[in-house]
């Protein structure tokens, strides 16, 4: 009885080990299963999902106009103090003083990409970009100014 | 067997010997010159072999793990390990301040030297071995157990508890697995009636021992593979290193070239045990023959004996690598249980069967 | 700061102290265990915490009820979605609203996908801890596919932040259902492979069977939850005991075992993966149409009071306790994290085993260190 159990144990053990070796052996002989993506060789074809949150950007149209009114909703919505909005007073055509965006400072190094600013924005001025290569040599370079120089508020956005 | 001689390396070595002896009169100087040439050739070829084994291990592991492995430096990544060696050469070789500095620096050399010594009696091709001693089997099994000394030294002198634990595990492990390796080697010694590796290969001219010795020879082969995997400290028996438990075990404190020497020794050991397995069980450089099928045997004879030897050795190396990348690690008490409760009794009974076969002449 | 905990290095004859961590391959992070050993046998363990404390609870006190959710992704980063959901549910409880039916179902699906991916990473790292490197990559293959679903719908792979009080941040992606079904099909095919390479492996069974026995009483008194407690026969699945989101409407089993050793903890998680697949299969074709978000005020203010919501994360019971003073940000937030309680039982159950077993026990308890420290 002892001997029978002993031999059975040996055979069962060897069988279970061979089962595992079969799996690894299968993948060794079938290299088409290899999953490695050879980044950065595949940069040209590498496509992020459309909702991927890479960084906050402010789209401008061809006339160098953006949609940001400088309302600071995103600054309030941000949990980390990533966004700093500096506004200026500007004279409109009919001689009224109006608050306009001067500088949209975005600290990418502090951003957790939580999307709260995007959904807080009432005028859809900022969106998430799908970029993902953000490494720089100096942390200061991650402090970005999102509105292009000399850019204006788009007509009809209040 | 004419064609085999055509491709064997013995002609080459004889040529060099004749060339040297015609130029150097003094026998002692001749001997020293020849030994130096052999030593340098061996060192270079072993380092190259280890480069290849390192590359092979990475690629085998990568393919089993659905990865590509190193493929940037050199064609198919073959030069990656050269780059790694250069990096290790430039790395600072740290010595812990409270360590036993003499033993700490000596240990890697002992490990490497012990590994290299075991190469001597191996027959790489027909009539081509460094030193075909008549007790070859005994020599290899005793020299290869020297490496435990280096491992124990490394662990003890590092002044690190992880290292010490690793070294102690290694001591218990190598000492006990030595028995099974020895017994499975003896199985072939009994069958062939010889301890010289050259003679053992010659006895396999009409068939390899793994086929000639029936099931007991196969059992001996399996035990040999398992036990020698344990003896050279490779996964699933790599308890002395055990990264996940002991963060590197006996070589935790080693860096730079001293660490590289442990790696070198590991690969040389891997090669030695595989070559031993190939020599004893798979007929060394003997080509594969099937009975009296002359045309088939002729074709097999045309393959050089060196290729036969390396092919068999690398087959066993691949199997040992396959183990490593499939199985989880054993625990220290289970390791000893496997040896003393399973491998040793089985190989003891096996030896009796083998002896019976040898005495009755049941083998072919 | 010295002397907060008196450093204890006293040893008896034949014992020595070894520091496992905070930089160690098998502590999965910066856990520091001071281990008293006699040879290879464990005499005593003392966990040291605080290496990754980020004061998430204190930080949340100055954030609004919408904003404090994002930080919980960084607690149990393998189940970020479930943490976020717990916070959203707690705020909803305070507001006395409920998420829309569509949001509820999507939340449940995403929770179960998170559980699957978390268990797959656990399976991968269990193999790795015990020395089998290859299974790691097989599990990551399926996990990668799940993370792609997350990426497509939530916009992030690990720290999704897809939950807002009242529902979801956006509607699900049009590809969501199709992709989920494909992934489920792939995962179901691979379960057999998992069994072949690890579950049935004799070395693995020997390494885990009978190792790290946790009794039901100990599990109860240490507050152990999740699969770790269920392996000891303690029924504690929040999805059954206090169902939330769409769990009342789905049919699933609470996996229980009585062995209480590492192998049974392993088996529980393997079976839970299959349960998760079946839950998702029940829901994926039945996502109700409608709004993805219940309208909430611009500035959420919770009424004065205390609110507690608990959910089942892959590692156990996560509790979110909010004390509100009627302001726009919480007065106090406390997270009852599953890993903290599960770690507290480690010194008890690892005593007397070998140092190699400690690795197996830690692997099967499935600790995530940032969740312990918060």
Structure description:
Helices cover 24% and strands 21% of the residues of chain A. Chain A is of the alpha+beta class. Chain B is mainly α. Chain B has one domain. The model of chain B is unreliable at 1-7 (pLDDT under 50). With 374 residues, chain C is an alpha+beta fold. Chain C has one domain (54-373): Cytochrome-c3 Hydrogenase, chain B (Orthogonal Bundle). In chain C, strand 7 (316-324) and strand 8 (332-336) form a beta hairpin. In chain C, 53% of the residues are buried. Chains in contact: A-B, A-C, B-C. The B-C interface holds B 61, 64-67, 161-162, 165, 169, 235-236, 238-239, 242-247, 325-334 and C 16, 18, 24-26, 40, 127-134, 136-138, 141, 197-198, 201, 203-204, 206-207, 354-359.
Summarize the structure.
With 364 residues, chain B is mainly alpha-helical. Chain B is built from 16 helices and two strands.
Write the SSE topology:
The complex is a heterotrimer of chains A (158), B (364) and C (374).
Chain A: H1 2-29, E1 55-57, E2 65-66, H2 73-77, E3 83-91, E4 97-107, H3 116-120, E5 127-129, E6 143-145, E7 152-153
Parallel strand pairs in A: 2-7
Antiparallel strand pairs in A: 1-5, 3-4, 4-6
Chain B: H1 2-7, H2 10-23, H3 27-64, H4 80-90, H5 101-117, E1 123-125, E2 128-129, H6 136-144, H7 147-157, H8 161-192, H9 197-202, H10 209-212, H11 214-231, H12 243-246, H13 256-281, H14 294-302, H15 305-324, H16 332-360
Antiparallel strand pairs in B: 1-2
Chain C: E1 16-20, E2 32-38, E3 41-48, H1 56-60, H2 80-95, H3 101-129, H4 134-154, E4 163-164, E5 167-168, H5 176-199, H6 202-208, H7 216-221, H8 227-230, H9 238-241, H10 262-284, E6 305-313, E7 316-324, E8 332-336, H11 338-344, H12 346-350, H13 355-365, H14 369-373
Antiparallel strand pairs in C: 1-2, 2-3, 4-5, 6-7, 7-8
Relative helix content of chain A = 10-25%
Helix content of chain C: 40-55%
For the largest beta-sheet of chain A, the strand count, sense and barrel status come to:
3 strands, antiparallel
Largest sheet: number of strands, sense, barrel closure of chain C? 3 strands, antiparallel
Tally of helical segments of chain A: 3
Quaternary arrangement of the chains shown?
heterotrimer
End-to-end C-alpha gap of chain A: 89 Å
The radius of gyration of chain C is: 21 Å
Unreliable stretches covering 5 or more consecutive residues of chain A: none
